[in-house]
Amino acid sequence: MAPIALTQTESVSPAQVHTLKLKGDATETPTGVAQNTLKGPLEYKGTLEEYSHFEVTPSIGREFGSDLQLSQLLKADNSDDLIRDLAVLISRRGVCFFRAQDVSQDEMMQLQKKISTLAGQPKDSNMCIHPVSENTGEMGAKTQLISAEMQRKGGGIMRLHDDVSRWASRAFHSDVSFEKVPSDYSMLKVNVLPPSGGDTQWINCYDILDKISPSMLEYFKTLKADHNANFFHQEAANHGKTVSKTMIRGNPLNVGDDLSAHHPLIRTNPVTGWNALYYSYGFGSRIQGVTYDEHLMLRDYLTQLCLNNFDCSVRFRWEAGSVAIWDNRSTLHSATFDYAEERSGDRASSIGEQPYFSPEGKQKSEALRAEGKKW
Ligand SMILES: [Fe+2]
């Protein structure tokens, strides 16, 4: 019998392929233009332990008494040692508070620059210039006045003219995280405050990672998020202003009128070597490399993760002359807009490095266990 020919070709329809539309490339890497200059994490030498202080919560915050005057740290013989330790302490505790300070605006600028420099600020980075806030612009990097008036006019992060959430938590953010090279540290001194209200809260984004399963955390390490503040164009227009297209805002990469940037969702802090969630709710944060539906789910999860875990947060009640200095790479913060009276003060903020995720980065809790330390 003749063999059956098996060469007949069948016409098979290819399986229908669905291509999911994803926004952004989650694997893009930084250009490396603005890298932190530290060779490795810094050790806290303990030079500030002699001043009266307490840890505000186990997770976040240290408060110093008025025997520590920030103005004196600048004048001390071992000024660099003290201020380097201050930078390390702030990065480890997230935020430090100082009562009854006599530090002037100029001294705030000097101190802020020195903290950033000793913590490895890239040579191209300088003081932060906000694209919209009052008292900035072409006048250069002066201290920035914060006031309740700006928020009431709708010029601030609460976006009172926009159709956005009216919940108080919507303002949680990391300073200028919409910049390609955002802030490393910020300092705020409140001079005038209402009899009650206007507290500020911070969230420790290192400790938030302990609330995530290891497998979920591994997935988050592959993602990036869009930090977007292009709503400031409308806010500026409401006040007869425009966002400058040419002014350099603290780093040559921070120029132009596109106020948005993609950053790793898990960010390594070069000062501590610890990883933190870097998710700035106040600036939108479209998660990249996932579908819109997945983005919504993740955004809701990350928001609840930050806002519901109050064991990772601290709330500070200001007095006239109080100063707070915090690390923007590993904390979120928000003022509480629950007052009608005047609240004003001075702010100094510096631009740090381009955010990155390092596979060498450690989880804070594991690092502390290995070091045998509480914080
Ligand atoms: Fe802020």
TrEMBL record:
Does the record's keyword annotation contain Iron? yes
**Where does the record place the TauD/TfdA-like domain?**
55-343
**Source organism's superkingdom?**
Eukaryota
- Record has Iron as a keyword: yes
The biased composition feature labelled Basic and acidic residues covers: 361-375
Region called Disordered, residue ranges: 341-375
Family matches, as InterPro entries:
AtsK-like, TauD-like_sf, TauD/TfdA-like
* Keywords of the record: Dioxygenase, Iron, Metal-binding, Oxidoreductase
Family the entry assigns? Belongs to the TfdA dioxygenase family.
| Name of this chain's protein | TauD/TfdA-like domain-containing protein
> Which species expresses this protein natively?
Kwoniella shivajii
